[in-house]
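Example 3.2
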Amino acid sequence: MTKPRKTRTDSTDNLRRIFAAADKELAPPAHVPLSDASWPFFHSIVDERAKADWTPHTLEVAALLARTMAQLEFEQRLQRVEGYVIERENGTSVQNPRNRVVSALAGQVLAMRRSLALTGRAKAGGRTEDAARQRDANRAIEQNARPSGNRPDLLA
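Structure, written as tokens:
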């Protein structure tokens, strides 16, 4: 059994799909609420792809990633103030326990980023270069669609 062919990035169907979603506002699902500190991370994450390329599940992962990145930033800020090595009351020096927390959060961030990239690779036929090329092309099409508001006649 053969796989169905992927839609070409420059095809009419793909352009129609990208243009239809270009003005859509992306938001995390209601069951993954974001704090004020998480929102800038969420916007940065969803700007990585064209809006048409986001699914409900990838938006969930993006929201979880944004929350984790905000927590990581908070912990790193405290770690910088406290230092990597702290002094106990008895005068001995020990590694700051926050180092483990920061390391665990950084690992979670990387794992979630890989999860989002895996979805892109799977949709693009399994090759990282193909996924990146398709993601960049779709993003460029979306950017060109937004500012001028001009839609090609093919969408009429």
